[in-house]
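Long-time lurker. I teach an intro course on protein structure, and each term I like to show students one example going from raw sequence to a predicted 3D structure in token notation. This year I'd like something fresh instead of my usual example. Would anyone be willing to generate the tokens for the chain below so I can use it in lecture? Attribution to the forum is fine with me.
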Amino acid sequence: MDCLKVLYIDPGTGGMLFTILFGLFGVVVFALRTVMMKVKFRASGGKTSKVNENKMPIVFYTDHKRYWNVFEPLLDEFEKRHQKAVYLTGSEDDPVFKKKYEYITGQFIGEGNKGFSKLNLLNASVVVSSTPSLDVFQWKRSKNVDYYIHIPHAPNDITLYRMFGIDHYDAIILSGEYQEKEVRQLEELRGYPPKDIVLCGLPFLDEMRKRLENAEQLPPHERTVLLAPSWGESSILSKYGEPFIDALISTGYKIIVRPHPQSFSAEKDLMDRLMTKYSDTSKVVWNRDTDNFEVLRRSDILISDFSGVMFDFSLVFDKPVIYTRSFFDVSPYDASWIEDELWMYKILPSLGLELNEDNIGDIKRLIDKCIDDPSFAAGRDKARAETWVHMGEGAKRSVDFIIEKYNEVIARKEKEEKKDIAASKNKKKISLKGS
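-- Reply from a regular --
Happy to contribute to a lecture. Here you go:
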């Protein structure tokens, strides 16, 4: 028994050791592959190697199907232009596989470390992704990828990613000037060279706005409140939990709770407890739809914390929000490096009212005031002007930028290859003369 105790490794430590070993294995494999490629290149006399022949032009990557709304407008634009691209996904049931694309190829690469192991050896000219933390944890920059472009999945502060989330991308597609200012501040503070930044807008909000314009008019319905928090220790459900849900039920309104998808894995015990206790659908409806369009459309007000869904709801559906901020800890985020107040907190008072420990018991009054007060409409117009540039043109402008960068990469690589070939020929001439 004592021997078993000595050999026991707790699950957390075991997982960490596995990650380290997996990373070391990937480094070894990549190093061997690099050596082999160099040998082949030299043996070919400096001619284009098989690596370049097999290089994928443009690749999109998402770690989960829930970000399909971010990529679908871009892929549709690629398809419309007859431009080929590969879409890599960490979800086996990603919606891409139901689309009848001719020029877009969807590939399931596996979840977690399995997917990252393929990404770390990816051979592509340009990679576009909404996944942060490139070259920070398991996902490493591949030596065979020339250019990485990040596209956010929320129209708010770019500094609300976990620390160093965007540092190692080559370019970022943004939707507001304040975001560019935040990126430049981080670069200066950390001593990184400036990235390529372009303001293209919000393709996924453009599409959501089109859907809303084409949707049938909603019939009269009871006042509906949507609680859609983020996840983690600073979220509403973690901080307020049962007492807050009880307060919402006491309003007599229809209550819909839509937890963040990450909550069902990272906070499973909390979700199991709450969903078991509030299983009566006449009091609380739990929503887990992949597509949030209908639940947002049918709700009259949204309550959230620091989730980007607040801006989807306000800017597209033109409805008020109730937000929290007092217990949000910025220390794990890039925002902790910047002294300026978050844009999110500057604009939220224009969009609705703040929920805190003092007024949580007065939630019905807050809900009614937000819905009935017309002054919040002007605040929504202000937010759109600041965080949604080029409305309706997001997909076109984003794809223009992606293709532009691809063409630049190709031109640069061709120039480098010509230079290498010339150098190889000169080396041979010198060798012949010497002999």
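Some talking points for your students: The chain has two domains: 51-151+393-418, 207-387. Residues 1-16, 33-48 have pLDDT under 50 and may be disordered.
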